[in-house]
Amino acid sequence: MKSKLKIKFNAPVVLILVTVSFVATLLNYITFGVSGRLLFMTYHSSLLSPLTWIRAFTHIFGHADWSHLVGNMSYILLLGPLLEEKYSSKTLAEVAAITAVVTSIINYIFFPNIALCGASGVVFAFILLSSFTSFKDGEIPITFIMVAIFYIGQQIFEGITVDDNISNMAHIVGGIIGGIIGYGFNRKKE
């Protein structure tokens, strides 16, 4: 008996994140950057403005260009479905939201002259969170330690030695959030 192949709508949070990011980046191109600055980029603006608080969440959808978008979405599409299956859609949405707000607040306080956009912090949160998928019996997986050393170490090194438009802070903070949440969720299961 032959089974029919069908397309399955899996990982709704991941698919929504990717779709909204694609639309936000497309809108940014169509509006010559206006929509990005208005909705999909966080920067030092009045705390009394509702848009400041909206952008604290929505900046993860905006990307500087197609290369930036494809790089981030590739990781999210690779890691996200596995994480969403293990932890739930609600949890993965919370990880993305927490990462967005925390990186936005840190950027606002410590880097007032720098605008921040993109899902890189979320990517790093997913990378560190994924290294906890084999967490058992209160042990910290060596893969988590190696991922932390390679990814976070690289970001610290590049943050000190490389002058580019990449927010190493968002990567580091995202990784820390993913590590803390991964450890916390798996610790609860003991």
What would your notes on this structure say?
The protein has a single domain, classed as Up-down Bundle (Rhomboid-like fold), CATH 1.20.1540. 68% of the residues lie in helices and 0% in strands. The protein contains 8 helices and no strands. The protein has helices spanning 12-30, 34-39, 50-58, 66-87, 89-110, 120-130, 142-161, 168-188. It is globular. The N and C termini lie far apart (43 Å).
Helices and strands: which structural class?
Answer: mainly alpha
What is the CATH architecture assignment?
Up-down Bundle
Taken as a percent bin, the fraction of beta residues is under 5%
Number of helices: 8
Q: What helical percentage do the residues reach?
A: 55-70%
CATH topology (fold) name: Rhomboid-like fold
Pick out the low-confidence regions: none
Q: Secondary-structure element sequence?
A: HHHHHHHH
Mean pLDDT across all amino acids: 88
- End-to-end Cα distance, whole Å, is 43 Å
Largest sheet: none
Tally of strands: 0
Q: Rg from C-alpha positions? A: 17 Å
| Tally of separate domains | 1
Shape estimate: globular
CATH class: Mainly Alpha
Quick structural summary:
With about 190 residues, the protein is mainly alpha-helical. It has helices at about 10-30, 35-40, 50-60, 65-85, 90-110, 120-130, 140-160, 170-190.
